[in-house]
Amino acid sequence: MALRRIALLAFLAGMLSHGAGLLAAPEAELEAVPVQVERESARHSAEGTVEAVRDTLMTAQVAGVVVARPAEVGLRVRAGEELVRIDPRAAEDQAAASAAQVQAARAELQVALKEYERQRRLFEKAYISEAAFDRARAQRDAAQARVAALEAQAKAVRTQAGYHRVTAPYDGIVSEVPVVLGETALPGRPLVRLYDPGALRVTAVAAQSEASTLVPGGTVDVEVPGFPVLHLPAERVQIFPAADPSTHTVQLRLALPSEVHGLKPGLFARLSWRSPGTGEGRRFLVPASAVVRRAEMTGLYVLDRDGKPILRQVRLGRTEGERIEILSGIDEGDRVVTNPERAARVR
Predict the structure, then answer these.
(1) What are the CusB-like beta-barrel domain coordinates in residue numbering (predicted)?
(2) Which of 290, 334, 269, 337 is nearest to 309 (CA)?
(3) Which CATH number fits domain 89-162: 1.10.1740, 3.40.1010, 1.25.10, 1.10.287?
């Protein structure tokens, strides 16, 4: 019995030591690397949005029922192509009535002109009085004025009738059509939104101190997730002359090259550039595999003094191959875990 008890105790001790080894295994298997620090001129960045230089929201100028809607979201259209048509029948009838009034007034003008010529000849021969000649001249002038007034009215009616047909002002892409067939359009109601994909820009906001570091001769990097980084001259950046008094920020605007394809208004964009001069700055780089993304949080597992992984929230910068820049959240000397899945299991 004593031998069996000794053997059982030895077995239990072995199991406990084996279990302790299993618990320590994840921690022992953690792979960590020091944060890479690169010395360079200070780098600045400003976050913004891709915008279309020509982005047009067309609204109704007349009231009526929408009877045709050829425009669809995402459709490429040509200048002059019909996008929405409002029932034009009442306007067409009014235009026809105006045209008929113009014809009648012109006929009356012809009669008045002939009568004026007859009265003029008679007046020159002294067969009629000057008062009778003045009446004929007044009737001619009145007929001419009536024709001019009715022609202007008919032109206005034709222009008003043209508002029932909404056309594209330029080649572009339809981005929004907030009406459907059968709806009643009222003056001021949005009908179609159109933008020109060949003329895009980035509008960003930067602190006034950072905006002052944009000088001619430098380079501005434009980063849009999912697209290659663009390197553009700093001279292309337009700095607005007025700052926001509540945030003390300045708006920046950078026109994108027309040969860039695939970008759309509303995409996130980041502008970044280096400060001029010889001032030294630091860049922190870590392996891209070390980044942890959980919902809206982005972080890194950093080893503390005891070698335990601590999840720390960070702000990401540019991706350079298999490395990624960390703008905030870590410091020189930190050791970052490169296999965050194992670090998440360590207690």
Answers:
(1) 203-275
(2) 337
(3) 1.10.287
- The Cα 74–Cα 59 span in angstroms is 19
Cα gap 172→198, rounded to integer Å: 8
Question: Please, which residues have CB within 8 angstroms of residue 184's CB and are 6 or more apart in sequence?
Answer: 63, 64, 65, 66
**CATH placement of domain 30-40+281-343:** 2.40.420.20
Strands 309-313 and 315-320: unpaired
Q: What is the pLDDT of residues 223-248, one digit of tens each?
A: 999 899 999 998 999 999 999 999 88
Distance between CA 196 and CA 53 in Å, rounded? 7
CA nearest neighbour of 55 among 165, 174, 135, 158: 174
Contact 60, 41 (CB under 8 A): no
Q: Which residues contact 196 (CB under 8 A, 6 or more apart)?
A: 52, 53, 54, 55, 170, 171, 172, 173
Select from 3.40.640.10, 3.40.50.150, 1.20.1260.10, 2.40.50.100 the CATH code of 56-85+164-195.
Answer: 2.40.50.100
Burial of 74 (0-12, 13-18, 19+ CB in 10 A): exposed
Beta-carbon-side half-sphere exposure of residue 69 (alpha carbons within 13 Å): 18
Q: What does the pLDDT look like over 18-28, one tens digit per residue?
A: 444 434 444 44
pTM of the model: 0.59
What is the reported pLDDT for 95? 87
Distance of alpha carbon 44 from alpha carbon 48, whole angstroms: 13
Q: Give the chain's radius of gyration (CA, Å).
A: 39
